[in-house]
Design a protein that fits this description.
Elements lengths: L10 H10 L9 E4 L4 H9 L4 E4 L3 H15 L25
Parallel strand pairs: 1-2
Length: 97
């Protein structure tokens, strides 16, 4: 998940850097932003984003939250599982409100 309006580095510049790193180039990136600018959307697409969502589109945000929950394998957490060498299960996240 990437916001385009980051305080120190424009999000699209960060995305370009991610794509240039061979170990990160294949990662899925969804852009969540307030920008409706066609130029931002076009550049994000050219950099291979999986989704471009405008924050004011509540229906799209609801779908994204649902997909994140499915990906996480839980119905009460937005925390995506991290790869771990430990066999211990991670602590459950706080429920969404």
């Amino acid at each position: 998940m990437l916001d385009l309006n980051l305080p120190r580095l424009p999000g699209l510049d960060l995305l370009q850097t991610l794509r240039s790193e061979s170990r990160l180039a294949g990662c899925s990136v969804a852009v969540l932003t307030s920008s409706t600018a066609d130029a931002d959307r076009a550049r994000a697409r050219s950099l291979g984003v999986s989704a471009y969502l405008v924050k004011s589109d509540r229906d799209a945000l609801a779908k994204l939250v649902g997909l994140m929950r499915v990906h996480a394998g839980t119905t009460n957490s937005l925390c995506l599982p991290l790869r771990s060498t430990s066999s211990a299960a991670p602590a459950p996240a706080a429920p969404l409100r």
